[in-house]
Write a structure and sequence with these properties.
Distance between the termini: 41 Å
Radius of gyration: 14 Å
Shape: globular
Number of helices: 7
Structural class: alpha/beta
Order of helices and strands: EEHHHEEEHEHHEH
Helix content: 25-40%
Number of domains: 1
CATH superfamily: Uracil-DNA glycosylase-like domain
CATH class: Alpha Beta
Strand order of the largest sheet: 3-2-6-7
Number of strands: 7
């Protein structure tokens, strides 16, 4: 059983919550979200926000908070082989009330189909908020290039 090592990224101004499934091996090593260099999350989100791609954890944190975006994962603990979402089993969900009780979240997005399935199964009833699924930024989602991801991810911008 592996316990999620990364605290949620949010503040009291966060209006959007982006949820992944569970951190990759590389993200767990770095103790920060989307740490694998091949994951396109930071490139795509920076492009959507019209920002330079952040490199350091501090730059990533600052960019997300500046744009009122929170980041966490659906799963608190699970059994997983390496980083493969397809091997996730024995799931315990994160308690999203940690974020939802302190931040005026208007929309929840999930990064990929596994995050969507886990959110619907374990979390949606508690939050009462339907999540909007976005295509995964994982390198395993090779069918989606960065331009296609950008086109879909543009919807996270609050108008």
């Amino acid at each position: 059983m592996i316990i999620h090592p990364i605290p949620p990224l949010f503040d009291r101004n966060s209006e959007i919550l982006i949820l992944g499934s569970f951190p990759s091996v590389k993200s767990r090593e770095e103790c920060f979200f989307y740490g694998h260099p091949q994951n396109r999350f930071w490139k795509v989100v920076a492009r959507v926000l019209n920002e330079e791609t952040p490199v350091t954890i501090q730059e990533k944190t600052d960019m997300m908070l500046r744009h009122h975006i929170a980041v966490w994962d659906v799963i608190h603990s699970c059994e997983i082989e390496g980083s493969a979402d397809s091997t996730i089993r024995n799931v315990e969900a994160n308690d999203l009330s940690i974020i939802l009780s302190d931040a005026p979240i208007k929309r929840i997005y999930v990064n990929g189909r596994k995050a969507e399935a886990m959110y619907k199964k374990y979390t949606e009833k508690q939050t009462g908020i339907k999540a909007i699924v976005l295509p995964s930024t994982s390198p395993a989602n090779a069918a989606w290039n960065e331009d296609r991801l950008f086109e879909e991810w543009k919807q996270i911008i609050i108008k």
